[in-house]
Amino acid sequence: MAWFLLFLAGLFECGWAIGLKYTDGFTRPIPTVLTVISMVVSVVLLGLAVKTLPIGTAYAIWTGIGTVGTVLLGVWFLGDAANASRLICIMLIVAGIAGLKLTA
Asked: pTM of the predicted model, to two decimals?
């Protein structure tokens, strides 16, 4: 269950990171409220997950899911660059996440 909570926390991290783009510097109320809610949910889920998971592993995986998800969403929906070097770096992050999960 802790791993599932951690995965959800990472997804909400993607949500707030992408949400920042739509807040327009926190001047748009609805995107701002949704972004702040995503931030809170993400941290609460992370807090629940680390009750049983090692903090270093959980934090690294949480940020990794957020990083990979945000980059991919940026490429798919916001027109961010998807060149070979960026994709290789994403694969390295995914490999690190998998390694941490396997050794936890």
From this structure: 0.86
